[in-house]
Structures are given as structure tokens and as C-alpha cells.
Amino acid sequence: MSIGLELSCERRFVPQALLDALASRFGSRFSVAQSVREHHGTDESPYQPMLPDAVVFAESTEEAAYVARLCNEHKVPLIPFGVGSSLEGHVLAVEGGISLDLTGMNAILKVNPEDLTVTVQPGVTRKQLNEEIRDTGLFFPIDPGADATIGGMSATRASGTNAVRYGTMRENVLALEVVMADGRIVRPGSHARKSSSGYDLTRIFVGSEGTLGIITEITLRLYPQPEAISAAICNFPTLSAAVESVIQIIQMGIPVARVEFMDEWAVKATNAYSKLNLRESPLLLFEFHGSPASVQEQAEAVQDIARDNGGRDFDWAMLPEERSKLWTARHHAYFAGLQLRPGSVASTTDVCVPISCLADCVLETAQELDQAPFPYTILGHVGDGNFHVMMLLDPDNPSEWEESQALNRRLAERAIRMQGTCTGEHGIGLHKIEFMQLEHGENGLALMAGLKKTFDPNNILNPGKMLPAKSMQG
Amino acid sequence: MSIGLELSCERRFVPQALLDALASRFGSRFSVAQSVREHHGTDESPYQPMLPDAVVFAESTEEAAYVARLCNEHKVPLIPFGVGSSLEGHVLAVEGGISLDLTGMNAILKVNPEDLTVTVQPGVTRKQLNEEIRDTGLFFPIDPGADATIGGMSATRASGTNAVRYGTMRENVLALEVVMADGRIVRPGSHARKSSSGYDLTRIFVGSEGTLGIITEITLRLYPQPEAISAAICNFPTLSAAVESVIQIIQMGIPVARVEFMDEWAVKATNAYSKLNLRESPLLLFEFHGSPASVQEQAEAVQDIARDNGGRDFDWAMLPEERSKLWTARHHAYFAGLQLRPGSVASTTDVCVPISCLADCVLETAQELDQAPFPYTILGHVGDGNFHVMMLLDPDNPSEWEESQALNRRLAERAIRMQGTCTGEHGIGLHKIEFMQLEHGENGLALMAGLKKTFDPNNILNPGKMLPAKSMQG
Question: At residue B43, does pLDDT exceed 80?
């Protein structure tokens, strides 16, 4: 069972003529089966499924454009779908309509090792990409916990553990192909590393959560696999000692590739789920990339800072399989957390603040959470000032849901008050809509609504997401 | 004397009531004097001055908003103005109107050393910024040749010699305050290092060339001053040997901070203008940042690659004053080039291509230029695939201007054909408008025009720039 949601929108009428046209064009790649619709109306958020009226499995840009044209003509919602790993309700069909499954478009179209770029279809997942390019000596660093699709990651401006060194999807998408609401195709960006030519349409689509266009091709930056990699675990007596260390590391400009925080409960959950035996106190996971000498130098500098803050000596994960085990465990922290309270549902939040506010923001949040009647974990990509709270709720107890949402609200407000953002990497979806006005102001929201109306005048693309309904009425 | 321009637009009517209102509000900070208007209707492009009807010197966001409201009411053009260092005609008042001089808004509002950020007014110049923050141990790396304002650099998505390591204005602007055409104020972005909250309005304004809003405040990322810096000069027998070396350095992932190419003529001009005695053959200027050990390691790896390509042993510039002299000379390359042909005017171009195409693009361009009747130099930020051609024209010989523009056109088309862009860092302004359709396609241009109409329905903000007139009629 999962949590319901009060919505201000209604399902739209989907004419039979539209369904007939799609059925005739797509044959077995069109479905109204309950199980298929359920799969496409569900994600990793705690919300109840909301089913699309039908699902189309596209295999080409032209097919996506055909579906867009048809939906636009009939003013029927169209929701791009990857692997459904959203935590914020991005793919739920709150107004019904057509789910456009892009997982069949999963070809790596062109690797350009000389340019350190690759062009992929949107259904390629991040792990698939890295497996297929391994021989080139290059890799793609962006790694949200889930094995998400590159299309979905572009649409939510995803990041992950490597962002502190390599940036987010914002910095790593060079060019796109996008199907617009009316079926027109645009190709923003170029394969050059920089450009001053025209408005930055690429960055408009990156993070637009399927509301401005359907991403059908992505050109990404790649990076040489580091000559040397080492990973280390450092335990701290307190949460604040760990966070203070991170602040000093960033301020020193030490180019750590990863620096991840886990609180004691996240460590316990990870030990149980991933069969590790990490010391159960707040800890930082580090990874260092570079030449052997520079990796050693970075590690020594970081160890010194950690020690000054009461951190223990590093435990090293030197071998590739040890590192892989460690990072896989980190990526499974979400599923591990769920096991802290069997039968629970998770409500996750994700804020990002300036690093000078990180300690205060984490500590105030932890103090509030300590009063709550449910277990929680805190973990995060703290090198960016980004952390997550996972609250484990009894699905049969509405008061827990309400309390979690009050905590979520205070956390988002705290982050915004500290000149941060209500979401560092999960996106707005349904869950964070209520904070858009506070974060961006009335005028900022009006600009976003104007943008939406220009790009999608019939509001067919993933309607009901990101923008508050009232901003769309202006 | 400088070059005229055929324009498809006309000067607009500026009502006396508007001028009276501005005169009454701004007193001595309002001017219709010929000399003031000439200064504000001129930049470093080869075009003839085009004068605004009046100039207002703003000292606050509220004043900028007042001027915008008034201009919008009367549908009068409004052109933000910094130091006028554009090379592409950005500030020319092609439709007349009001030039809004922002150089009086030159305060550094807040340095946040803990967060590695700074918030500045738009009239702060890059050198002023670095001088004022020197004590903090931080620096701002983006350095177009001119001592441009941060507002102008944001508006043109500027970069420079450090972009290969630190990115461009696209990557380094965290947040903005912007006055919209109707005087409303928006504050896109946050002080967090990353965000997935809503459309990326910040990136829409960065590079919008004053056509979407007036940037009145900018929050930038800063970087710790490197522990060690070294600079080296490496001469090569041929242009292609130098460019091939750069390609290999980038592909190896060596984190050079700067790698600048100068052809033989650029070296000669720089020697004469800046009183240096660089060896007069194609050369690369390198700078390495990091710890002492990592700087040495980078330099050794680069020297090996250069040597394999026929490069000479490095000449080192170890002392800060030697480095400063070298980079000042590099930044003065534009003025140095002008001296190659006394009395000439310069037509500069600026393209950026994927690094795998850089050698071909530079060589084809040089071969064409060798046939031209005027001198030229080639130099560039080749680590990004970005290079400039400077053609030195006889202002009294229209056929030279025509030939330079034909060369410019073929170069832009070549760069776009190679999946690059017609401008890596100078922007579109007036000079590159004709390439917008080829680079972005009809649908991409239509989206940009839609964006412009949404943000500035009366087309008062820097009209006639960036977007072809016909795209605005749709």
C-alpha cells in the first residue's frame, strides 16, 4: 500500500479515435492492459499509482513525434517514461493520457573517443552506457542511485556521487534531440565544448521533467578513466565532525571525486542489506581519482583534515572489487533503508544548501527528526551541500505521513532560507510543487509558466508536474 | 573609419515625454550629449557607431527597473551597456533608444569565502573582482581578453584562457538578479552548487546578450588560488604539430589550466607590441595549476606529448611577474595584431569545434587565408576547440571587407558542418546573425523567437541582435 495524494487536476477525456489510431500504427507496441498501465503509472515515490489510459512503446524519434502530434491534436496528456525510478512522482498520470515508453530506444549511436563524447538514445541506462564504452578507456560519471535512463537523468538534471568532481547533467549534456509538443523536432546544442551562440535551449530541456519536450537523443561528455583510483572510509564520532571535515576539504580545493556522508542508521541499514561490516558511526566514503601520486597526495590531505576533526584512520578499499562492493552498497542505500522497518514505505527528501550552511542544516534537521515516531536515515553527496533524508513510515498510519510531510516542508523551507534549493537532484515532480513559489518567487514562476505555454501551448506534456496549477492560470 | 552595415531594421520613435521623464529622474546621470552617445554606440567591432538617443547611468536595480518600465510603456529600445568591449556589435543602437550604462553599479556585494562564491553588481570588471578578493585566497578564473564587466561576460556567456579547466560563464554563474522588460525583478538560481528545481532560468539569461533581461546582480563560483602555478612556452615547427599536441593532451585527461595557441604572425605581433622575444614560430602557452607535485607531473606529461609532435623543450615562466607579463601579452593579442598593419581595422571571428576536427578546421582556414590580400593571425583557446582569426583590413578598400566576410562565412559554415558552433565565446551580436538558422535550424530559431516574445513582448531589449529579423515575424 502507498500514500494517496490530493490533486487539483482531473483526468482528461481521451477520445477513442486517438486510441484507435495508436493501436493501428503501433500494433503490439500499443497497450491498454491493466498490468502495463500499472507499471507505467508507478514509480519509486510513496504515491499510489495513477494509470495512463494507454502505453506506447516507441522505437524511433519519428514514432515519438507521431504520438506527440496526435496527442497535441486531441489535447491528451503525454508522459515520457524510462525505468520509473523517480522518487517524486514524475511519471504518474495525474491527468491520464498516454505514457510513451522510450526504453526500446536504447542504442548507443556514436562514441567519439577523440572528442570524449557519446551520443545515445534516451532509453540507454547509465550502467549500460558504461559497460558498452569500457573498452574506450572512457567513462560517464553521473550516477544517481538507480540504474536510470540517460533520458530520465537529463529530464531531471540528475547527479549523484561524482558530481562534486564531474558536475551534474547540467554540465555534461552537450547536445540534444527533442520532440516538441506539436511533433516538431529540435536539435539544441552542438558537439563543441562551449558556445556563445543563441539562447541555451539545451539547458532549458535539461531538468524540464518531460514538461517541455520529449528527449530522443543525448550527446554527453565522457572522461578518461583515471589512471589511479582509491577509496577510503572514515568514521567520525559525530555527524557534525564529518560534515565539518567535508566543508574544509571543499574549501581547500582538494579535487575529491566522491565524498559521501552516511549517518549511523544508514550505515546499519547498509551493513544489513549489503552484508558489509562498516563501523556503525557517522562516516564519509571518499574516492580519489588521478595519477598515482596525486591520488596519494589528495588522500593524505583529506586524512589530515579528517583527523583534525576527530575522524579515525582511513579504512581503504584498494581493489576494484572492494570499491565496487562499497559503491554498490551506497547506491543500494535506498533499498537498505527500507529494511530498517519492514513493511514501511519511504518518504525521501533531497535538499542542497551552500556548503557553509551544511552543518547547521543537517543538525537542525536531525534534531527535529529525533522527535519523530518513525526511523530515518540521513545520507548525501555532501561535497555539493546536498543531502537526503529517508523517513520510514507505517503505510497504515496517516498521522506518520502527515508528520513526515511537515518535516519535509520545514526542511525545504530551511534550505531555501539558507539560499539553497528544495531539491538538489531528485527534481520537483509532484512532491515539491508546493515549494516552487517560495524558492523562485512569483515573477520567477510566471516566467516558467510563460516558457511552458510557449513550448507546449496545449499543456499536454507531463501536465500537473513541476509548476503549481495556479501559476499556469495567469 | 570603420565598416558600415546593412540593416533590416529602422530607428524607432523616442517620445519627448520619455526623455523628459528620464531627465527629471536622473538629472546629471541622464545625457543626450553627442560624445556620451557616441561612446555608448561604439564597441570594439569594426562597425560604424550607431548612437542611442540618450544614455542613463543607473546606480541601483530599482533605477534599472524604472527605466525598463518606462521604455516598455513607450516601446523604446533599451540596451544594457558595460565597458563596450564587444567584438560583435552587441551594444550598437541599431533601432536607437536608451543605453543603460551599468558601470556605476560596480560594488562587490558579498564575498562568501566558505562557499567559494561572490555576489557582485554587473559593472564590476573581472580585474577589479580579482583585485578585491585577492586576500581571501580565492580567484575568479574567467578572462576574456578585455577587462570586461561581469554583467557583460554573463550576458555573452564569455570564457577565455582558463575555460579548459574551470569552464565558462555557463558553468560559473550560480544565481542572478534580472530586471525584466516590464520592470519586474526575478532572482533565478540559488547559492547551492546544484539544483533540480524548475526550469534553468539562470542559464537562459546567461548568453542572452541583453535581449531577455537586464542583469543587475550575479553570484559567481570562485576557486582557491592554486598552491603552485607554472607556465611554459613550447614552440612547434608547424601549426598542425601544435594542434595535434593539444588534442592528445585533452584526450589524456591532463588537467591543464590553460593551453593557448598562437600562430607565427600572432607571435610576431605580440613580440612587437608587448616587447617580448618569443621564438617566432607556432607556439603553445601552457599553465599548470595544483600542488607542486601535480604541477610538475602535468608539465612532464605535456612536455612528452609535445616532444613526440616535434615541439621544442619548454621555456619556463616560473616567477609570478614573468607569468603575468606573458598572459598580459596574450590578452593584448588583439591590440598587438592591429599593429601588424598600421591604420587597419580588424575583423575577428571565433568558432569552436569538437577537438577531433580542430586540426582540419584550423588548417583549412589557414590555407584559405593564405590566399587573401590582407594579413591575419590565428590564435585561440585550443584546449576547448576554440580559435580566433583576426583579419587586418584596409578600411578604405571595400573589397577587402567583402573578402573577409566571405572567409568569415566559410569558416562559420565549416565549424557548423563539423558539429561545432559559429561562436565559442564572442557571441552573436550583429555579426553572426546570418549563421543562426544554419546552426540551430528553423525549429530551434522558432523556439528562441518564442522565448524572446514571452520574456520581452514589445521587443525593447537590445532589439536587432542575435535573432534574425524574419524569425521574429513568425
Answer: yes
Mutate to test the interface with B, among A195, A211, A382 (most CBs of B within 10 A): A195
Beta strands in A58-127 (DSSP E): 78-81, 98-101, 108-112, 117-120
Q: 3-class DSSP state for residue A119? A: strand
**CA neighbor of B50 nearest in space, from B86, B105, B85, B89:** B89
Nearest to A192 among B180, B198, B424 (CB): B424
Using alpha carbons only, what angle is made at residue B157 by residues B156 and B161, rounded to the nearest 5 degrees?
A: 115
The type of residue at B95 is: E
List, as ranges, residues 287-316 from B with C-beta within 8 Å of A: 290-291, 293-294, 297
Phi, psi of A391 (to 5 degrees): -110, 130
Q: What is the largest CA-CA distance in chain B?
A: 70
User: What are the angstrom distances between the C-alpha of A277 and each of A305, A316, A376?
Assistant: 25, 13, 20
Chain A nearest-CA residue for B426: A196
| Weakly modelled stretches of chain A, pLDDT under 50 | 1
Q: Which residue type, as a one-letter code, is found at position A436?
A: M
A-B contacts at Cβ under 8 angstroms: 285
CA distance B404 to A102: 47
Prediction ipTM score: 0.96
Q: Do A203 and B203 touch (CB under 8 A)?
A: yes
The whole-angstrom separation of Cα A260 and Cα A286 is 7
CA distance A306 to B291: 19
Residue B133 has pLDDT above 70, yes or no: yes
- Per-residue pLDDT tens over the stretch B400-433: 999 999 999 999 999 999 999 999 999 999 999 9
Are the beta carbons of B448 and A198 separated by less than 8 Å? yes
Interstrand relation of B283-290 and B258-262 (parallel, antiparallel or unpaired): antiparallel
pLDDT at B1: 39
Q: Is B356 on the interface with A (CB under 8 A)?
A: yes
DSSP H helices in A134-256: 150-155, 163-166, 169-172, 201-205, 239-251
CB A122 within 8 A of CB A150: yes
Cβ pair B223:A253 closer than 8 A: yes
Q: CA-CA distance, A58 to A56, in Å (whole number)?
A: 6
Quote the pLDDT of residue A2.
52
**Three-state SS letters, chain B:** CCECCCCCCCCCCCCHHHHHHHHHHHHHHEECCHHHHHHHCCCCCCECCCCCCEEEECCCHHHHHHHHHHHHHHCCCEEEECCCCCCCCCCCCCCCCEEEECCCCCCEEEEECCCCEEEECCCCEHHHHHHHHHHHCEECCCCCCCCCEHHHHHHCCCCCCCHHHHCCHHHHEEEEEEECCCCCEECCECCCCCCCCCCCHHHHHCCCCCCCCEEEEEEEECEECCCEEEEEEEECCCHHHHHHHHHHHHHCCCCCCEEEEECHHHHHHHHHHHCCCCCCCCEEEEEEEECHHHHHHHHHHHHHHHHHCCCCCCEEECCHHHHHHHHHHHHCHHHHHHCCCCCCEEEEEEEECCHHHHHHHHHHHHHHHHCCCCCEEEEECHHHCEEEEEEEECCCCHHHHHHHHHHHHHHHHHHHHCCCECCCCCCCCCCCHHHHHHHHHHHHHHHHHHHHHHHCCCCCECCCCCCCHHHHCC
- Interhelix angle B61-74/B16-26, nearest 10 degrees: 170
B168 contacts A171? CB cut-off 8 A: no
Cell 588583439: give the residue: B334
Contacts of B212 in chain A (CB under 8 A): 199
Q: What is the pLDDT of residue A1?
A: 39
Residues of A in contact with B385 (CB under 8 A): 192-193
Given a contact cutoff of 8 angstroms between Cβ atoms, the answer to whether A110 and A132 are in contact is: no
